[in-house]
Design goal:
Elements (H helix, E strand, L loop, with lengths): L10 H8 L8 H10 L1 H9 L11 H10 L23 E8 L30 E9 L2 E8 L4 H4 L11 H9 L2 E10 L2 E4 L7 E3 L4 E5 L18 E3 L4 E6 L5 E5 L16 H10 L10 H4 L18 E4 L9 E3 L11 E4 L4 E7 L7 E9 L13 E8 L4 E6 L2 H4 L3 H6 L1 H7 L8 E6 L6 E5 L31 E7 L8 E9 L25 E6 L5 E5 L16 E5 L6 E6 L5 E7 L5 E7 L16 E7 L7
The chain binds MU-OXO-diiron and calcium ion (2 copies).
One calcium ion binds next to loops.
Length: 631
Amino acid sequence: MSDNTDRNLSADEWDELNFPRPKENDFDRVVERAISRRGFIGGVLAFGSGAAAMSAGLLDIGKARAQQETRFAFTPVAASTDSDVHVPEGYRWQRLVSWGDPLFSGTEVFDQAIGGAAGDADKVFGENTDGIELFIIGGKQVIAVNHEYTNNKINLPQATDGVPRDARDVLKLQNLQGVAVMELVESDTGWAVVLDSPFNRRITQNTPMKISGPAAGHDLLKTAADAAGDESLGTFNNCGSGKTPWGTYLTCEENFNGYFGATEEPELSEQVADGYKRYGISTDGWGYEYHKWDSRFDTSKNPNEPHRAGWIVEIDPADPQSMPVKRTALGRLKHENAACVLAPDGRVVVYMGDDERGEFLYKFVSRDVYAPGANTSTLLDEGQLHVARFNDDMTGEWVSLTPDTTGMSQAEIAIFSRIAASKVGATTMDRPEWVAVNPIAVEAYCALTNNSRRGVKPNAGGDWTPVAGPNPREANNYGQIVRWRPSGDDHASKSFEWDLYVMAGNPTVHEGAYAGSANINEGNLFNSPDGMAIDTTGLVWIQTDGDDSDEGDFAGNGNNQMLVGDPVTGRIERFLTGPKGAEVTGLCWSADRRTMFVGIQHPDAPFPDGEGKLPRSSIIAVKRDDNLPVG
Ligand code: FEO
Ligand code: CA
Ligand code: CA
């Protein structure tokens, strides 16, 4: 293991440090392999030439691009390597809120020397902003936002190397994560958080949660503190987000495994040990050190506690007293986000990526239909979980995870969804990050961020990761975006056609597949697509969480960024660049769509407070100078 006390790293950097890319990764061999696959990729790119423009393949997109009229109302920004945010001419940005800013009066002013008062950590905007959704409640604009993980060296500046010194430090970290719900208001001076709004709420790693669905009450979820196995504390590693048609927030628990460790070797049943292995639960943990100060996280004392994390949690932003609900029917994985859409018959479809190398893409379809005003409390409890199988002929299936197809009980399928999905031969993917559903066409997109192990190593379950289908490049450092159109224009359908919307790459460094698809050029270089949202006009906003060294394979990429793509023409242009070190993640629009709220996660100093100050993850508000809509 590497020095796992350094929390000033993204989760991806952390993963790479602990599981580094293979040393034998010979560059020439990789390129040769990619070029030898060009025939196949040509097949991919030619897909859909006879179909509607929305499913045009990339070669067609390349041709279409020359003829298209632009839908982009801006001049693209250049790649940047500095410590600021840049937006196009005619646009402006302001800071909305940063880690440590109060949601309630009576909290201390953020103290740089101590990284904010420990006692206030559950009353301020938390660390590492991620998924964001906006709700209109009683005429007020309320956002719910995730706080994914902590940067211990920054959040605990007085602790040596950021290693928690005591239970108080651990509690501070636990309280800086989770979710914030807060009301926003726009005035002549810009956007601001409404201090003490009745909607303001912090949900932390200690907030009571109800567990519902097929795993609720199962023996694997029972602990000494919760003999019934249906109520847990806290939500963990809240990454991407989702919004239901009935106005609730879905927060997605991603790298939950990192919080658990053991003070002595745990005694585990074979089933639990297999689960630990598949989900990466170790005796060391990832440096949070909770297990040394809070026995709930010590797997030698509470071996079932990790089974109570890794879920999608539903939160009602309109009711600050409501108890969040862990919806186990949606499976237990390293959940990225939850993209909700209604099928034509009113059933609820939720697309979900499992962000780990060689893991899978999932879909839940509710049993019952959504009807406005009707009871929605069990819609996400009763239904069918599926996993995607992509075929090389550009078709695919959603395979149902049932006792018949997996040999597992319904509860076991929920708790060990990865294992169930392996049993049905799901397609190992290049790290599925956000899924976005197009509101004006029946199609969905998933950002496959990168996969250094593609064609090199199997996933954690031993499933091979062939260079094939929507994952066409070995040791894929750049990432791609796959999209699919469900059969019968029905997101609940069991089959689909797919293509690749874009393959990131670098044509200034490579030829062939690593140069990227036809819609990649010197002016829009990026790597590792991650966050994604499609606006009301059908434009695809792409956020990145990649290598920002601006060197070698990544020369000309600059810092992480947000681009916007036209799915009809394929054209993609760079809209915003983030500060050095940051990931750009989380995006939603104000009610009038004249403002975009964009997350800037884990920047390096001096963003945003200046030299000598702690860097602070922040949400920014982006507007046009002429105040026209931005999405
Ligand atoms: Fe939290 Fe996969 O990003
Ligand atoms: Ca992400
Ligand atoms: Ca990522």
